[in-house]
Amino acid sequence: MNNSKIQLVELLKRNHISIEGNLDSLFIEKVKLNPNQNLVNIILKSAKIISEKNFSEIANVLKDKFDGLKVSISIRYDIVDDLIKIMNDYWENILYCIEKEIPSSHSWIEYLEYEVNKDVFMIFAINDVINYALINNKIAEKIKNKIKNELNKNVNVIIDDSKIKNNDNEIIEKTIDEEKKISIETLNNNGNINKNKEKKNNKKSISNKSYIYGKKINEQPMDIKDINLNTGSAILAGDVFQMEVRDIRGNKKLVIFNITDLTDSITVKVFLTEKQFKEFKTNVYDGLYVKVEGDIIFDNYSKYLVLMLKSLNLLEKKERLDLTQKKRVELHLHTQMSSMDGLNNFKKLAHRAKKWGHTAIAITDHGVVQGFPEAMEASKELGLKVLYGVEGYLVNDKKPIVYNYDVKKEYNTFVVFDIETTGLSPKNDMITEIGAIKIVNGKIVDEFSQLINPERPIPNRIIKITGITDEMVKDKPTIDEVLPDFERFIDGAVLVAHN
């Protein structure tokens, strides 16, 4: 190592910075400043492998020293050993990289294995869900680039599925075998597949009320609430909701949906070929009543019990009727305007009341009257009397709604802000956007709007609500980078939370 280069440990000591770990082999090779991005990139060099966690700690410490600047650390290793020997120490850094790219991998990261064969580096997944997560997040490509940049070695990184365990689950085993056959056929018959693709796409699946996936199910269903890890094979019946589709390798689809029989709910998963999927999506969708058969397994990815689908039949749900001679009037009714309570719009509920022979119906949402216009329209359309009401809230006038108020101070600057997140948990979810306006003396004088990389995939249900996709935030700054700018924006202002 060139002695003219600065040893990182000595530099940290001179600045009274202490970091745990053996960093004696680290030297500063180059420092790059990007004024346009307020970024300092420090390139280090080492003759032995250093834990990736140390680099994160170094970056955080230096970020405090470089006030207002972002700090990134990159490393180049000066090691002549072959990859097999290097991997004895470097594998932990690869796991750290995977966990950073896939936060949910914390539950299964320790089960990953690797093998080096000349210039091929293979990572083995133990089940199909882990395999999907690694491929979907392009881990092979990212690790290949990491090894090239840090170790200066050209290797071919492969996510290998040959060690996937069946977990006593026949459907997963059959699915993997089928996917392998499709992959081989794709390689051997690529030309024929491309030629026939247009013809296949032009054929439309015909909707069929007697549609059956798998076989006809004659047995009676059990209650979902009675399912446990020892259930094995199960037959269930319920309403379909929250269906989503994911693309997987081999031109296949992973369809995930939930069903409920009102005793409980459960997630159903099924792997489909392109042809099967076209028929399936035409005939199975949210709101249908179905009977399903499959194996109950513990899903390592979602950490709860799921049903791996073998068969599905469409059923006619017996409609509930009001057969009493003297009809009642519903005086307590919540629509979807009642947050976290009502599910249906008023018009749908009014149609049901009319069908049952009711002559009147009330609307009593939680603290809001936004459902009144729709209720007025339904009343005219159906000739149904509507009783307009609301469930009011008693306000605790002893509980403050304004904090840190100073009676001697004059307040004329306000920042009204809103955030979007990856979910509803303030503990487990991350912010994806901050939007705010600054108001001075009643006039809007400035705005703040920033998309944020949550460093984790955004769930499909959240994308439908916010419109913010993974693609939109992948190159955006993280929350640690955005908060200092937002703090400067709100400095001296009264914060007003928007809802």
What would you say about this model in short?
This protein has 499 residues and is an alpha/beta fold.
List the helices and strands and how they pair.
Blueprint: E1 6-7, H1 8-14, E2 27-34, E3 39-46, H2 52-65, E4 70-77, H3 83-101, E5 113-117, E6 120-124, H4 128-136, H5 139-151, E7 156-160, H6 170-188, H7 190-202, E8 212-213, E9 233-248, E10 252-260, E11 265-272, H8 274-283, E12 289-299, E13 304-314, H9 346-355, E14 360-366, H10 372-382, E15 385-391, E16 413-421, E17 431-440, E18 443-451, H11 460-466, H12 470-473, H13 479-490, E19 494-497
Parallel strand pairs: 3-4, 6-7, 11-13, 14-15, 16-19
Antiparallel strand pairs: 1-2, 2-3, 5-6, 8-13, 9-10, 9-12, 10-11, 12-13, 16-17, 17-18
Helix pairs in contact: 9-10
- Count the E strands: 19
Output the strand order for the largest sheet.
Answer: 9-10-11-13-12
Structural class: alpha/beta
Beta-strand residue fraction = 25-35%
Q: Return residue spans where pLDDT drops below 50 for at least 5 consecutive residues.
A: 166-176, 190-207
Characterize the largest beta sheet: strand count, sense, and whether it forms a barrel.
Answer: 5 strands, mixed, barrel
Our count of helices gives: 13
Average pLDDT across residues? 83
State the end-to-end CA separation. Answer: 58 Å
Radius of gyration from the alpha-carbon trace, in angstroms:
30 Å
* Broad shape: flat
Give the proportion of residues in helices.
25-40%
